[in-house]
Amino acid sequence: MTVHRVAVLVLDGVTPLDLAIPTQIFNARPETPYELTVCALDSQVATTAGFALVAGGDLERVRAADTVIVPGYEPLLRPPDAVLGVLAEARDRGRRVVSICTGAFALAAAGVLDGLHATTHWKHIDELERDFPAVKVDRDVLYVDEGDVLTSAGVCCGIDLCLHLVRRDLGAVVANQIARGLVAAPHRDGGQAQYVPTPVVVAGEASLSGTRGWALQRLEEPLTLRVLARHAGLSQRTFMRRFTEETGTTPLQWLLNARLGKARELLETTDRSVDQVARDCGLGTAANLRLHFRRTLDTTPTAYRRTFTH
């Protein structure tokens, strides 16, 4: 595989968890082409946790990268001009530029987000909208994909975004393998709510994860809201409310995302026809599968298979 160079550009006050996410996901593996370097303006960088870290690369390594990722940092001061310049240059050269959490403020300050949709941690969303009016701020999403510019919401949403990038680059099978290693959800759609005010579970209540797991084993079946609610032992109204509180999305949208995920794996790992894949993942017909692939991935099942068949 052609080497894909990933530069994680850390700023003073970097959040350690935000930094750990891309370094874990884009770390070198036999099944991936990624070559990762942690970079900084100065070799030693302070973190929000009170310790310093030593970066292995400088801004020249950022200029040589195919993907540049800026983790979150605080306080949200304007980064040095040299940092802003290298981010703007990466964007101008068509490199992929990514932020996790408050890293969006660095991209915005560099002009990378001008005219684009973007997001950040919900605590700072008003600040991003106020300070950078040229940015189209999306408030209630996990991440935003604008092609070569991508931003994620707070902290753990960076996992969703980085796995989304792996899925774009290498397909669902590899992304799901990495997700399983992280014990992370293999796919959460970027349009899900980033801040889900889940209530405290009271005595006698339980998570709906059992019903979701049951559904994942039966995606080829006609799973309606009534069927799911019956399995959970709840009324449809209560099931809908609790499902949305737990996942940030509706049961039917969750099912569609799960079925598309299964379709992608089947297209990558089997030689089943598009009609058979559509039936096996619960989308019914090849025409329906093509419709959802075009809406969600802007491609066709056949083109997807050509791209990601290993």
TrEMBL record:
Keywords, sorted A to Z: DNA-binding, Transcription, Transcription regulation
Boundaries of every HTH araC/xylS-type domain copy: 209-307
Presence of keyword DNA-binding: yes
SUPFAM superfamilies assigned: Class I glutamine amidotransferase-like (SSF52317), Homeodomain-like (SSF46689)
A Pfam family per the record: HTH_18
Superkingdom of the source species: Bacteria
Coiled coil feature spans: none
Name used for this protein in its record: Helix-turn-helix domain-containing protein
Origin species: Streptomyces rugosispiralis
